[in-house]
């Protein structure tokens, strides 16, 4: 099969397309997918460069989010069969390939209403957003959530989940197109984070109280501002970070607020089953609508890695078609 392989840590140039990679054999609790599309996530670039807490052994195939058709299942897999449409959230063999394995626990059923490219946009973005908002942020209907970077893949997923759970959504983006997209997904108010005074406008939109919850995609730039504007006893959930930041802990004390970290891989089996139940139902009923920003051929993976980190304004999920 064709697959992208990484032989050494480095920039996008280390992503090499190989034509004769063996098709993986699923383990007892695994599913083998014939991949039609695979998602590109920022974390894929961190791992490829060698700058991540948990690194695979070299050589490896990148990627966790794949969507396609089940080709085979292990002997202990009961909830999937050959021919099922499915998507993976954590691939075992690597999703940047024509075939990929994943544990059944980290695999979901893909609704017929969604394309394979949309299925490839489900995994990390939607599951991260749900874990951050509901499992860690303990969001409740009627609360207000501020979603930084709401036009990115995780951000858009969070907007849809928050609205489906009865929350009021405030979203930030950096381009007019991104702001329009976030608004169309159900945000009540949107703010351009490149404009002066946008923090004051967010606080004003909450009647001066601040949001109950903040989903933070770039904590090294925004965490101090988040602490200043969060509501009394509010929760800030850190989803992304690219460096260090100095904060004033007195703000935590005075507001009795919380800063929470999230790592999707730390989810328990029960939490995975909870996420599957909600998001599979969302796909079937129609409120889960992944937005694919751009599609790339498998051989153009280096450009996709460059774009997912360096694009001027996030507008959806980047997907490789296989």
Automatic annotation (TrEMBL):
Domain Enoyl reductase (ER): 10-320
GO CC term (a single one): cytosol
Keywords: Acetylation, Cytoplasm, NADP, RNA-binding
Superkingdom of this protein's organism: Eukaryota
Localization per Swiss-Prot or TrEMBL: Cytoplasm
One GO molecular-function entry: quinone reductase (NADPH) activity
Entry keyword annotation includes NADP: yes
Annotated family: Belongs to the zinc-containing alcohol dehydrogenase family. Quinone oxidoreductase subfamily.
PANTHER family per record: QUINONE OXIDOREDUCTASE
Name by which UniProt lists this protein: Enoyl reductase (ER) domain-containing protein
Organism, scientific name: Littorina saxatilis
